[in-house]
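Dock flavin-adenine dinucleotide; give full complex structure.
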Amino acid sequence: MTKTFSALHVGIAGAGLAGRMLAWRLLRAGCRVTLLDKQSREAHNTASIVAAAMLSPLAELAVSDRVVFDLGQRSMVLWPQWIDELHAANPTSQAQPVYHRQLGSLVVAHAPDQSHLAHFTRLLRHKLPQAYQQQVQHLDAADLAVLEPALTGRFNQGLYLQGEGQLANDQWMDALALELDRLGVKWHTGVTVQTLEPGRICGKRTGGDSAASDINIAVDLVVDARGVGSKPLLSGLRGVRGEVLRVECHGVVLQRPVRLMHPRYQIYVVPRPDNLFVVGATELESEDTGPVTLRSALELGSALYSLHPAFGEARVLSLSSALRPALDNDQPACVQRDGTWHINGLYRHGYLCAPALVETLTRKILDDTK
Ligand SMILES: Cc1cc2nc3c(=O)[nH]c(=O)nc-3n(C[C@H](O)[C@H](O)[C@H](O)COP(=O)(O)OP(=O)(O)OC[C@H]3O[C@@H](n4cnc5c(N)ncnc54)[C@H](O)[C@@H]3O)c2cc1C
């Protein structure tokens, strides 16, 4: 291909985290971008909006492969830079400043579950490269009380995972949407993309009051970022159901995410601004998109209450579910198939890996254009 960046017109199917972030980086590089999504910009049931958006390269290593850890390490460098870039590009933007912290995270267990904490620690230390071992620190009750005074006297020991963090993903997705508009994206909402081929995206406009109409858009390059919606084109793609609880609580203040080890599941509590907390997440090998089950609501709620009884007075704001897009090897992928780029498989670590993946794909697209 011999086009200049400014002439390159990229069509991206899917305006979730992957689609929006890629659109942003390509627009910044001077490309024209058309973005298509079957939902509105404010869609509440996508993985990208439902997610807790913990940034946990260390804890994720216990349950995933080294490739996720490496992508996560790169992303932990990029997140603060990219959030600053977004704010600096348009300081008068209507978007709220994106809440982002990298103050580490805690892992704790109640006394009967200490063996699960010990196992998690051994597994993590076994998989963690030598250079990162000092980022995992054992805490006694006094250390815990210093880091999170709200947990004083509640746990005898824990782990501190240095450098981990969290992000308010609703703010990030909103801020990206405003910045994409400012940079001139052509965004089609309410369009279900049906076929992708090199140089062309076809679908049906189904949203709004208008009758369904065909959409047929010619572009120079096509990227598929439809999450689980890419199943017809990506073999081995599956949806993994996740459910989260969002509460408001004035009785507890936490600075950082806290993971609670449990014999049957791990639950985490992620603090957000304005006394909000995200409690997650179930992980079910199911593509059921229905509402949260009573069982999951009870498990999430009781784990929260057991972390601190003051959460008993928390107000339940929402219970939501979404499908995480996962590939057979549970690793993210940026691959080109039959002339179309795919960014997918972000699974349970999409926020952790997205900046590094998007950086890689942006570079590949721009290099191919030279
Ligand atoms: C409960 C839960 C908790 C999570 N917690 C974390 C966490 O703490 N940390 C972390 O790093 N990650 C977390 N994740 C994972 C992360 O949210 C996902 O990996 C990531 O959001 C996936 O982004 P995506 O853009 O690939 O997919 P999606 O968010 O699914 O976006 C795909 C988009 O494509 C659109 N689309 C689909 N089909 C079509 C079609 N045919 N035509 C047009 N548009 C279409 C959809 O409407 C959607 O907007 C969590 C996920 C869940 C569900």
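Observed: The CA atoms of residues 128 and 330 lie 19 Å apart.
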